[in-house]
## 1
Amino acid sequence: MKKLYIHAGFPKTGSSFLQLLFARNAAYMASELDLHYPMPAKLEERAEGDRSTMLGNGLAIERLFKGGNDAAELLASYLDTGGRDCLISHEGWAHLKPEHHEGVRHIAAKQGFEVHHIAYRREPFELEISAYLQSVKQGKTDDTLENNIGGALRQQARFEARLSALPNTRILDYNAHKNDLAASFFAAIERPGARLPDIPAERINRSLSGEECLFLSQLTKRYSDPKLTRSVAITLIGNHAFSGTQVTHTGRSFRKVCDILGLDAEAEAVRQNFVPHTPDFDAETLLETSVNVQQALCDAMLAQKQEADARERELSAQVLFLQAALSGAGARGRAQAEKACAFLESEQEHAATLAWLERRELPELAAAVQAQAVQKGFDLPAPTGKAPTGKKPGGLKALFRRG
């Protein structure tokens, strides 16, 4: 019987690294390890180049389940492996309800697969710091570590309880394997000694320094815009190596973790040789970090403006294309189509507008966008030029279709 291996996280245990590893080596794993890692188009795009974060191929399945939709068709397509074992990865897989896990096992069994789960747990004191840094990075908190203790521990405990209740589950120690994460995972799925050709050299989803946390927290507090904070954090991580003070536990945060775990704080401090941390930032490092954050903020604001400008151009073009479609194939319609094309600048704008026109069954206008894209040197797929059987291209129903 073939095996469906599900890498289920948990959060903050190197999932981004493993998912980038899987994506970049999907072809090699299929040909050399007899292991199929399904690769949706968006995942292929995300795996190209350096990434601060990565997503797993199981996210789409979880979203279908959570939205009350049937994931059977997508899962069945993933399991069309040509006789190979299959690998699905999503760090939030334990979010699924028992009936969803049962549905996955049922669909897998129908296609000749036995489901196996592999996950990693992280040392609790380290986990809480990592989760806090992630919350700051995502603009979810503007508070201190001391006031953000507990959530990650409780989530990991819930995830472990849910996953442990399922058959064929292995939960590994992340801290014991974080320096050889790939080797430990492939050993767990019965591919010991696997040598992958493309192992990411870059640090995936690196931690923030204490100085960066200070400035990002202030940014979140001032603007209450998580998207802006995330953009600044991603720019910082992408453009600057870690520099500054490592975030560690204060006496108060350490005691809070001990209380949750039911440990005697004084005895645990002796066991870990723990010394309470008091933030003491160097003035020069603060200044350097301040400059980096300001540059990242400018980049983020510029990117938002460019995104808004591009969207405005697309909308202006769409309005004119609708007018051109209603005007017909005469001189007026052609003039409006030319004005619409003039609004489009980037390859992304051409691609989005081309797809939008095809959804509205306007092949002649789509061809005009394609022709302009070719003139500008953009590599876009040729429009199909086909309308649905029995329908006239550009019918009013299609013309004013939403989306």
Note: The CA atoms of residues 177 and 184 lie 6 Å apart.
## 2
Amino acid sequence: MHFTQLVYLTEIVKHGSISAAAKSLFISQSALSQSIVSLENEFGATLIKRSRYGVKPTYFGKQVCDDSEALIRQFNHAIARWESIREESSKISGKVHVICSPGSNDFLSGVVLDELHTTFPNIILVLQQTAQMRDGFDAFIEEKANIGLGSVVETSVERFKQEAESKGFVFELISKEEPLVLLGNKNRFADRSELTREDLKQLDVVYYSDIREPWYTSLFRGTACQLPTKESIVKFVAGSDAAAVFIPSSIRKEYTTKKRSLSLIPLAFSAPEAILPICHYLIYRPVEKLTPAEIRTLDVIRFHPYTP
């Protein structure tokens, strides 16, 4: 069944004539008749009766026609609403300054930028990376930014939330990233269903070089190297015996799904011994202090939460 068939049926009933309906729909009478016959076959019931006095719906056809008219009205209302939203979206403009902690900018520079450019073409996103979000508070206080996107270990969420709210900011948790160890498929542990503490002690770990050494490196044998980008980490792990954690899916996807040269393996042990989950969050000023462009940027980030 197609929506257009329901439109055709309502037009026939409205005009009381297949020829008149065909003219209003700009299609041939034969095409219109075939469409209604197909609809009747699908229902297993006659929808219209033809006579020398014109075309009238059957009892069942009248019910289908009435419901179809309601659907068409609802559809037209939705179209008008979508067009209005699209028109209003194009009118929203301005620069939006976002403070990002390391890792968060990978997310913003991908799917969020694409969505903003498509839906809100006149919003300009200005990203500023900071070593940690506490440094971003100063930018908030100095009114250089009104939105922050960051990450914190799960055990620190409540403390950080209280700190943000004590400064008058809204704290909003948007997603949680469970730790997965990234290994090249040639690694001797690549076929494991999970990794133990003893397994990690036989692996070197690679991490992002523009941040201080992560807390989890002590769980591994040592540090293979520090690399300047997450892309370089993925390539290094794919061709070595080293491991990595917390590499965004947008970066590792080509290697895990297309080239199939990487494996993602969960841990066999849990906190506090394990690598703790990372929680991704938003910090922003109260909504009444935000511009329309900032509010829409928050909406897009919520719509595309960070996915590991």
Note: The chain has a mean pLDDT of 84.
## 3
Amino acid sequence: MNAGLGDAANIIGILTSVIFVAALLIWLERRLLAVWQDRLGPNRVGPFGLMQVVADMIKLFFKEDWIPPFADKALFVLAPTIVFITMLSGFAVIPFAPGVGIIDFNFGLLYFLALSSLSVYSIVLAGYASNNKYSLLGALRAAAQTVSYEVFMGLSLMGVVMMSGTFNLREIVEAQRDGWFIVPQFFGFIIFLIALVAESRRAPLDLPEAEQELVGGFHTEYSGMKFGMFFVGEYLGITLGSAMMTTLFFGGWLGPWLPPLLWFCLKTAVGIVFFILLRGSLLRPRYDQLMAFGWKVLLPAALLNIVVTGGVVLHKRMAPIRLDNEQNLTVLPESVAKLIPDRERLNIKLSPLYASVNGTLRPVGRS
């Protein structure tokens, strides 16, 4: 494990910035939806309506923190905390720029996938603890939707892993210096994007809280700051998802002229705006259509992407063993040689027809 813990300034700066951005997105989403739908949006409180976020926060703080008497109180309180903590923890492995980050794991991509799966516990506990049929139905939907689309998300990223040869997010960014992975992994990106929207439970795939069917879904019984934590957790999720898209497919901090951190922030902002545009433009499908689309379309497409990517990578990296007719030498490509821990001993022991000469294989009996 290559773990380089960031200093206190890095940790505090990143977490503070992330929470501030999540709060700002509440205003940004309402303003952008208003522009696209030819409305005004929040524009009364403060310049450009920016203080509307502060007004909403004050309102949530002073709302009655009510817990239903029929609810499981301990789990009811724990549920919104889980989603908030898991989303914040996901930013620990994001490589914002060279030298800017919290920790550098060799398995950073697996860490992100694990935390995105853990967030579903928050939804399930909220639905169960509420002791409400609508909440429970929403929780069951969320569990099935998240677990299913987690499979497709993981498979869609295997192409990126094969091309970069690592699960380390910083090394994945460095591997894109010759070109962003969005080009060779376009189909993997589309699958990842759909799975990301489904996992974040954002419209049009917000079926666990579909108000026309389930009143409010898993958070029907929540109010005050507990509801606010679910709300902010959702925006943390789309920020984390946009940052991962930038890291995995759009070259992370790489770019000309501008500082690396600014490049990363601009690319992430474009992803966030795209999430908001999806909410304002697409209709919500039926739940059975969503699940059928995942298992019947996305799963075969993800597996096909793995097979094609693997074939291309194998063709590029593993040059065939060739016979040098002039010197009668069978030469191992360097990529193969690196995989053999003790070339001399292994070649002599396992291949009686060949002997190792200066790192190559010479047929026995030929000079």
Note: Confidence is low (pLDDT under 50) at residues 321-333, 343-367.
## 4
Amino acid sequence: MNPGRKLEPRLAKLSAWKWFPAVAGLLIALLITAGSLGFGWIEHQRALEEERSVALGHLSLARARLEGALNDRLLLGRGLVSYVSLHPDITHEEFQSYAASLVGRDPMVRNISLIKNTSIVDAYPFKGNEKAIGVDLAQIPSQRPAIMKVIETRKPIIDGPLDLVQGGRGLIHRVPVLLGSGGTYWGQVSVVLNQVTLLVEANLEEKCDGLCYALRKRDEAGTLGDLFWGSEAVLKRDPVVLDVVFPSGSWQLAAAPETSWGRQDRVSAWVIAAGLLAALASGYLVFRTLSASRRIEELESILPICANCKKIRDDQGYWEQVDLYFTNASNLRFSHGICPDCAKTLYGVEKKTPAKEGS
């Protein structure tokens, strides 16, 4: 048995339902709306990935500039450490001369301090830093942890930003001075870098290229520390991040839009808007088409019949006998006879009519 024949009566019954055009139009509108929303979401995700990719490109350039500017200055401390390791009895004049040759007129290097054990014994430039001479950094709570860490690990670190004994805030690169093959601890060399000058040289601003930037520390274990530059709001906006790596540690550089991701994506909004308009137009068109089709079917089902002779008018406007009309329009075949009323009228013969059931 053909399954299609079973469905035909159901489909005919469904199409004859009073609300069928409205429901069909609504379903078409909902399907197109769902499609436009899905396509709009896909387009939004693509635009979002593209926006993050562009932001990551800006961030990569900023990191490269920052690493370059920072690593250039870190080499200064290592050069001075090598000299002091060979000349542990370095005089004030020798220290000033050697430090001057290293620093030159670099505006980023605020000063270089020579620390024996944990106390500052010399500083360059000497003028303006006289009050720091003789200060035991191990007695200053903000600097003691870094001083002791260098002594324990025998490795250089970057400390800060923090409040300096000389005044102001800065980054301090601390490098241990070790004597002999056994690596006996003698002291440290600290290079104080001006944080503002470092960021300016790296062309890094808190707001640049439509992005907000922030920096925070990362310890040796990889754990992220406190934010020391920028706004905490950046870290709450799902930022793109990169590590700023240098020989004695690393920072995390983060960037995020000033407001939120996806604000510049207008294509997906237009796609959704166009989809909604298309859904409304298509739904209305389906409703009108089905309603008109039903109206046509209703009009076609009305047969014009003569009130007197009972002839039926066909589609071409010709009037035909009832039996001839239905024979031509369908597979019906007629057998002819005479009803009791006509038999009496024509021949005067009365024919008995079978009684109806229930009468």
Note: The chain is about 45% helix and 20% strand.
